[in-house]
Amino acid sequence: MSRILLVEDNEMNRDMLSRRLIRRGYEVVQATDGQEGLDMAQAQPDLILMDMSLPVVDGWEATRRLKANPATARIPVVALTAHALTDDREKATRAGCDAFATKPVEFQLLIETIERLLRDRTAL
User: Fold this and answer.
1) Were 76 and a residue from 34, 48, 117, 123 both cysteine, which residue would form a disulfide, CB within 3.0 to 4.6 Å?
2) CA within 13 Å, CB half, 75
3) Dihedral sign, CA of 55, 57, 63, 69?
4) pLDDT tens digits, the chain, 124 residues: what are they?
């Protein structure tokens, strides 16, 4: 069973996404801010869903730190953001995100992205 770290400060979004992911067979651990997400990433989840607008440490900076750390650099990170502009997608890529999903999340598309990244990771 793949373990996903969901870093999301909005309780309703966190609850809805985690319940849907659990129903799909994933183990979900949760963090409510970027620093907590960085701390929890040390446990090596299989994938991280990272909200970009987070308190304490925002998702952009948290992702940069994850990708700069050899212990967490290979964990795929999916940016979750309400900002759907091309510039935001480029900013997420520059920060080190492996994929990008806009809010409100289109769940089936998110699942396809998660499955692709997990497959790619196990193929390495």
Assistant:
1) 117
2) 31
3) negative
4) 999 999 999 999 999 999 999 999 999 999 999 999 999 999 999 999 999 999 999 999 999 999 999 999 999 999 998 876 778 888 889 999 999 999 899 999 999 999 999 999 877 5
Q: What domains does the chain contain, in order, with CATH numbers?
A: 3-123 (3.40.50.2300)
Closest by CA to 21, choosing from 45, 55, 44, is 45
From residue 32, alpha-carbon distances to 43, 63, 109, 112, 119 in Å are: 16, 15, 23, 24, 27
Q: What is the pTM of this model?
A: 0.95
**Which residue matches tokens 């997990």?**
118
Report how far apart the first and last C-alpha atoms of the chain are (Å, whole number). Answer: 18
